[in-house]
Specification:
Length: 439
């Protein structure tokens, strides 16, 4: 094997504009290139930084502890997008030549690169985000959004607030406080369908990018409409702004629930105890004592190879979610190596691996990550796995798990996925589909 890729702690300035692992000119044939379209800058940086730190540290840990994966180094590389769709497309084009995967990190970027991946034959890995119908592997052969989609998340929130019987929501009013962006609009079709079926009033309340830190108009509407529940589809500065406004207007925190990207420790710390009772559905749970965390500390944190500036952030939801995201990808690469009997897998082989992830309890235990992520399994036809999630609650200083596993109502969601997937394929014809997928 050639000289190993060197990883070192880079300054914050370097982190904003250059790769965080060996540059392309130093690329080695015995490495697997896994770029990440990161956003450590811009209005969403506060949420992007812990996620990227977690993703990066998991790869660094494997390289330091195991020498990579089955004898081959993992070359983690970040291309900074600032969460800009335009920059995200530029990063995709810049990294695609050697990539075995692309990780867009924005629903807007995902939608833009989605058609390109059919031509370039590069799989998209968008854990818990992106276009919900990407679950349909027959239509979206190169796109994956495990372990639960946005429509799964909306379904789980409705199941939680209704104690499993959505008909009890009849006559109630549910507001969706959402970022006015493809991400924030993603759950609307599912909420509209459920409102029609179960008789509750659905009230979408958009928050523009320029309004994220000043949501007085939105919370004035909430005070006027007096919804029974406010569901938040927020991101970055919007989350902290909404929590602050909710506290100021004395909205009941036990009636305020977010999607998994609206459950960030950093956002909640701005109000601390006053936000006690706020909840967020999540497919991951921080576990400070998990065996993998001991390995992260030993092989990455203590040697100074992490970009984490405050070690207390290692216990944050988003940092540990970043670990689980890289773990998913590594498990797909591992499956591809085994299936194709090769160390340096290509993008097509990794696509097969993403269709054959099997993270059951036994495997999570082996990885030292039991309880950190919902168990799930993907297939040719199912590119999400629909593992479900847990409800987390802010206790004044941290998020804690307050529910058993909640699973989405697949009978309600699957027909909508198929309908919207078909609409997408027809609107983008000719669109290649895999009719041989049956499971």
């Amino acid at each position: 094997m050639k000289t190993a890729i060197k990883t070192a702690v880079l300054s914050s300035a370097l982190a904003l504009g250059v790769a965080l692992s060996a540059p392309a000119a130093m690329a080695q044939e015995d490495s697997i290139y896994i770029p990440n379209l990161s956003y450590r800058t811009g209005p969403f940086a506060a949420t992007g930084i812990p996620l990227m730190n977690g993703q990066r540290d998991y790869i660094n840990m494997l390289n330091a502890r195991d020498g990579g994966l089955n004898g081959v180094r993992l070359e983690y590389d970040e291309c900074e997008t600032g969460y800009s769709t335009e920059k995200g497309v530029e990063c995709y084009e810049k990294t695609k030549a050697r990539a075995v995967v692309t990780q867009p990190w924005s629903t807007g970027i995902t939608l833009q690169v989605l058609p390109r991946t059919n031509v370039d034959e590069i799989p998209i890995l968008a854990p818990g985000y992106g276009f919900s119908p990407m679950a349909d592997g027959k239509v979206f052969q190169w796109a994956f959004n495990p372990p639960s989609s946005y429509w799964d998340g909306a379904s789980m929130i409705l199941k939680y607030i209704s104690d499993g019987d959505l008909d009890t929501l009849s006559g109630k009013k549910i507001a969706l406080l959402h970022l006015d962006h493809p991400y924030g609009k993603e759950p609307i079709p599912l909420f509209e369908k459920m409102a029609e079926q179960h008789g509750f009033e659905f009230l979408p309340i958009p928050v523009g990018l320029s309004e994220m830190q000043n949501q007085s108009a939105q919370w004035l509407q909430i005070r006027r409409e007096r919804p029974d529940y406010v569901v938040m589809w927020g991101w970055g500065a919007m989350n902290a702004g909404a929590i602050t406004e909710a506290v100021k207007t004395k909205y009941p925190m036990d009636q305020f629930i977010g999607i998994w990207w609206s459950g960030h420790d950093g956002d909640m710390q701005t109000v601390g105890e006053e936000a006690k009772g706020y909840k967020a559905i999540s497919w991951s749970v921080p576990m400070p004592d998990a065996p993998v965390m001991a390995d992260i500390r030993e092989h990455v944190i203590e040697p100074g190879d992490s970009m984490v500036e405050d070690e207390s952030q290692l216990d944050w939801v988003f940092y540990q979610r970043g670990l689980t995201i890289s773990m998913m990808l590594v498990e797909a690469i591992r499956a591809a190596q085994d299936e194709f009997d090769t160390q340096t897998v290509d993008a097509t082989q990794v696509r097969w691996g993403l269709e054959n992830i099997n993270l059951d309890e036994a495997r999570l235990e082996e990885l030292g990550m039991s309880g950190m992520i919902v168990p799930f399994k993907t297939s040719c036809a199912d590119h999400t796995g629909h593992g479900g999630g847990w409800m987390l609650e802010w206790d004044g200083s941290k998020f804690v798990k307050v529910s058993d596993l909640i699973t989405p109502d697949r009978e309600a969601i699957a027909p909508l996925e198929a309908e919207k997937a078909q609409e997408y394929a027809e609107a983008n014809a000719p669109w290649p589909t895999n009719e041989e997928c049956s499971m």
